[in-house]
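Q: How would the C-alpha cells look for this protein?
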Amino acid sequence: MTEIPQQQVPGVYRRRIGDILVTAISDGYLDASLDVTRNLPVAEAEKVLVDSFRPLAPRIAVNAFVIQAGGRQALIETGSGNTMGPTLGWLPKNLQIAGIDPAKFEAVLLTHMHPDHSNGLTSDAGEALFPECELIVHEDEVAHWHDDARMARAPERQARRYFQGARIQFAPYRKRARMFRSGEVFPGITAVPIPGHTPGHTAYLISSGSESLLIWGDIVHIPDLQVPHPEVCMEFDTDPTAAAATRRRVFDMVATDRMLVAGMHLHFPGFAHMIRRPEGYALLPEAWRYTL
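A: Here is the predicted structure in C-alpha cell form.
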C-alpha cells in the first residue's frame, strides 16, 4: 500500500534581486482571532474573509528572509523560536533543508522586536543562537522596550510578553548590537523607518542593479483584511493611529512605484505587487518563479 505523505513540502523559496539572492524561509503560522483587530465590525471582517475564501480564524503566516550578496550572508528576522507553539518555530529546520548554515550569518536584522520576529535570537536559557552575528535594529526599538516607565504602564501580559521578552532577546547581543536611524545597514540593504506598529518598526529595501524589493515587515498582519481596509489595526500596535497612517503611506508608495514587496505576514512565500482599483488597494501575489 502506498503511504500518504503527512507533511507539506518545506517552506523555502528563492528569489533573485539583481545579484542578490533572497530566500524566504517559513517559520510556520499562527491561527489568530478577530478579537485582536480594531476599527472594523466583526461581522464585516468575517464577510471580507469569507469572500476571500479564508477561514474566520485568520491564519497568519510568519516569514523570515535570508540575504546572500557578494559572498556575505544576513538573516532578516529570527522567527519565534519555541515560544509560540508547534505551528511556529520552523525556521531552524527550514534553514537546514535549504542548505543554509546559520553559523555563516554575519548579521541578523530585525524589523522590530515582537515575539514572532525576535524570539528566535536566544535559547531557552537565554543564550545567543547566533553568537558571532552583529544584531542590527533601529535605535528607537531598543529604547522603547527598555523604557521602565512604559513597561510599568503596559498591561501585565504585554509587559511580560513584549517588554521583558525583548530585553531577554537583546541582552546577549548587547555588545554586538548596531543601532541605526536610517540608511544602508548591510551591503545592498537600506533601512526605511516605518514607525507606528512599534516605534522602531523598519522596512528593508533590497537593491541590486535595476532591481529592488521592499521587505515591509508588519505593514499588514492579515493581508486579506488590511489591504482592502487599511484602517484595520491590531491590538498589539504600539500607536494604532500612526500604524494606519504608515500603512496607507506605504501602500501608496509601492502602488505608485510598482515595487515588488515581501512581508513577514504575507501568505508564503510572501512576494507580491500592489495596485489601486476603484474600490481600493489590491495585493497581487507574484507568480511562482521556476528559475533563478
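Helices lie at 42-51, 91-97, 115-118, 139-145, 148-153, 156-170, 223-226, 240-256.

The chain has a mean pLDDT of 97.

Upvote if useful.
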